[in-house]
Structure formats: C-alpha cells, structure tokens
Amino acid sequence: MTEQLVDPRAPRDLKAFIAGLPKAELHVHHVGSASPRIVSELAARHPDSKVPTDPEALVDYFTFTDFAHFIDVYLSVVDLIRTPEDVRLLTYEVARDLARQQVRYAELTITPFSSTRRGIDERAFMDAIEDARKAAEAEFGTVLRWCFDIPGEAGLEAAEETTRLATDDRLRPEGLVSFGLGGPEVGVERPQFKPYFDRAIAAGLHSVPHAGETTGPQTVWDALTHLRAERIGHGTSSAQDPKLLAHLAEHRIPLEVCPTSNIATRAVRTLDEHPIKEFVRAGVLVTVNSDDPPMFGTTLENEYAVAARLLDLDERGVAELAKNAVEASFLDTAGRTRITGEIDTYTAQWLAR
Ligand SMILES: Nc1ncnc2c1ncn2[C@@H]1O[C@H](CCC(=O)c2cccc(C(=O)O)c2)[C@@H](O)[C@H]1O
Ligand SMILES: [Zn+2]
C-alpha cells in the first residue's frame, strides 16, 4: 500500500507543491542557519554582544552592504556560540527547521576552527553536534551529515586545525562526509590549501570548496584542479567561461547554487541576472540551496520557488531539481534511492489529484 505523501487539502499551486516535496540540501551553514529566535535567545545570554536581541531588529542587522559586511555580521553570530550546549541547541533547532521543510537529508557546513579558537573544547564540540544529529534523525527523520570547512581568510593555521579535527580518528565525528573552504575568496588563493585537501581526501572525505562566489572563473578552475573539488559551492562566475561550463557539464560536477545568497551578499545584482539559466542551458548539474537562510531572509522552499520562476519550471521540473540534489549528495545508495523514490511518488500523487 503506497503511503499518501500529498496533503489533499493543499492548494494546487507550485508553492504548495514545493512545501510538501521531499528535499535534500547540500549547501547550508550551521551558524548561518540559526533562526532569529535562536540568535535573539543567544544574544540575550551574552549582553556584551552587538547582535540585537529583538528578532525584528535582527532583520535590519541582517541587511548587508557587501560581502565583507556579511562576514562581519556572520562572525558576530559565531561569537554567540560559546558553550557545547549552545552548539547542541543550535544544531537541533536547525534540524527542526529543515524537517519542517520536508528536508530528508542535509549536508550542514560547520566551521569547527571558529568555535574551538573561541574556547569551546573540541571533544565537547563534536559530542554536541553528534548528539543533535542522532536526536534529529530519531525525532524528525531528517538525516544530517557534516562538512567541515576551512575559513580561508584565517589562513593556514585554520587550515591545519580544521584538517586535524577532520582527520584525527579520535575526534572526527561519525557524521562527517566532506571538507570545504569558506569565507572571503578575494586574496585567498585556493592552491595554498592543496596539502590540507589532499590529507582530507586521503582520509575519505569529499572535497566541496566554495569558489566563484565573489571572484572569477579561475577560482573555480583552481578548486577543481588543486583541491580536486567534487562539487563547487556557488560557482557563480563559471557562467563567464564557456570552457568551464562545458567542463562542469561533461564531468557532471554539480554546482551548489544559492540564488538569494548571491543577491544578499551583492555577488549578483538582481535575481533576473542570476546565471542559473546559463548553467542549465549548458547542461550543468544544478542543485538549489539556501546557504544562510535566516541571514538572507529566505528558506530552502523559497529558493526552490525562485529557481522555478527563473527556470520557468512546472512540478516535474522542480522535482528534477530536488532529485539533482539527491544525486549530487554523499548519502549512501540506499538513502539516495529512498529519497528519490519519495520524490517520484509525491510528484505522481500530486499530478494525479
Ligand atoms: N556564502 C558564504 N560564502 C562564504 N563563506 C560563508 C558563506 N556563508 C557562510 N560562510 C561561512 O562564513 C565563515 C567565514 C569565516 C571567516 O571568514 C573568518 C575569517 C577570519 C577569522 C575567522 C574566525 O573564525 O576566527 C573566520 C566560514 O566559516 C564559512 O563557512
Ligand atoms: Zn556558503
């Protein structure tokens, strides 16, 4: 007996279809996903912080003049995460928000260096995220995996520390699947991180650096050739280099596209100018993601609606985007088959209404 996945009361519009669609998210940041309620609760615990305690004031606080301003605000929220309990609460609540959007699987990018350097014990940090991951899977049915990323602007000290935390068998968490590189790209050349990515890949982790978000296509080429990237975070500037687009398409290297993020950080001027259409036209495997949803005033559901508008998709087209994310994920074959099957069943039931 096939389970009824579609809410018969749901209106017959694309927004309702997206709301109920089983999804996977591959590019979403741990601290960047802290909801206004969580951020204001943490800010209230730390009165010395410049982060507003009022969720309303937070909306203005999360309005950025440029990428550097975004990073400053991001780090002010990182400063609120001071105890293992803060880490556990944040992680569990992020999982709850994902589950509410029918996210069955998410690869959450965590920057452990930023927390351990602020005094959180590394063992306690790992226990906190693993506790939350197991609780989320048991209570929400949402499977979480971790990406540990290097905050590139913090340099090779951060690279060494992140690699140690990701590869030391006494520390690396069971849920860790990938290794990334985040933060500003300008002046943070990708090739210098090759030795660290080599160690992470040798330890069985998948390489997923940000690239081409605020710099040109060469950063994406560098991520592919020096860091052996299996997916690219954003890759927005790839649209400027037809050879790069052809390479990404030919080798089926997915892009983790985050449309609203690119507007909020001023990496792209307007949504109508976003290169997602060029990516699809070139045959690139496009996945849709929210990056830092509360900071960008968006949700994963909204990112699917934005992509559907820009790509002129119907339900079947949106379902394909969801299946792209499952295909591009590092979830095991059984898990990928399960979620893809759910997407197909849900879509068939929806269209049969
Ligand atoms: N769209 C994004 N594009 C890029 N990154 C993004 C995006 N969203 C979120 N991030 C995260 O922002 C952090 C940036 C942290 C950073 O730059 C930094 C610099 C100097 C010192 C320290 C420190 O901790 O001491 C940190 C990264 O951890 C990254 O995961
Ligand atoms: Zn990101």
UniProtKB/TrEMBL annotation:
It comes from the Bacteria. GO terms for molecular function: deaminase activity; hydrolase activity, acting on carbon-nitrogen (but not peptide) bonds, in cyclic amidines; metal ion binding. InterPro entries: A_deaminase_dom, Ado/ade_deaminase, Metal_Hydrolase. It catalyses: 6-amino-6-deoxyfutalosine + H2O + H(+) = futalosine + NH4(+). Residues 22-345 form the Adenosine deaminase domain. Pathway: Quinol/quinone metabolism; menaquinone biosynthesis. Gene3D superfamilies: Metal-dependent hydrolases (3.20.20.140). Its EC number is 3.5.4.40. The keyword Hydrolase applies. Coiled coil: none annotated. The keyword Transmembrane does not apply. It is an enzyme of class 3 (hydrolase). Keywords: Hydrolase, Menaquinone biosynthesis, Metal-binding, Zinc. Its cofactor is Zn(2+). GO terms for biological process: menaquinone biosynthetic process. Belongs to the metallo-dependent hydrolases superfamily. Adenosine and AMP deaminases family. PANTHER family: ADENINE DEAMINASE. This is Aminodeoxyfutalosine deaminase. It comes from Streptomyces luteogriseus.
